[in-house]
């Protein structure tokens, strides 16, 4: 099953957001793609809280993601983030695994749950 590493960063100081956005988009994420070889990546800013930035790294299988997260290269990327942003940007990581989804909506809403 497909797995995603989701990094949720909180850029509390509005004055850091543009610089963080540029650094993450032009430097950090491209380096992560080159080092980790995810199947896909994307990132987003929350519309509910402008301090929240999400980065998504997709892997074909959970075991690939787990293996990547114990490499020295991953530790270097984490350390680079910490060195660059110190206490100004906090972050959390989560690993999620895709579960089967509905491919087509039911033709009749009365069939839902049957």
Q: How does this model look, in words?
A:
- Helix content is 39%, strand content 28%.
- The chain is of the alpha+beta class and 114 residues long.
- The radius of gyration is 17 Å and the shape is globular.
- The longest helix has 23 residues, at 14-36.
- The chain has one domain (3-96): Alpha-Beta Plaits, CATH 3.30.70.
- It has helices at 14-36, 62-68, 72-85, and strands at 3-11, 40-45, 52-59, 89-97.
- A four-stranded antiparallel sheet has the order 2-3-1-4.
Helix/strand layout:
Elements: E1 3-11, H1 14-36, E2 40-45, E3 52-59, H2 62-68, H3 72-85, E4 89-97
Antiparallel strand pairs: 1-3, 1-4, 2-3
Helix pairs in contact: 1-3
How would you concisely characterize the structure shown here?
The chain has 114 residues and is α+β, with helices and mostly antiparallel strands.
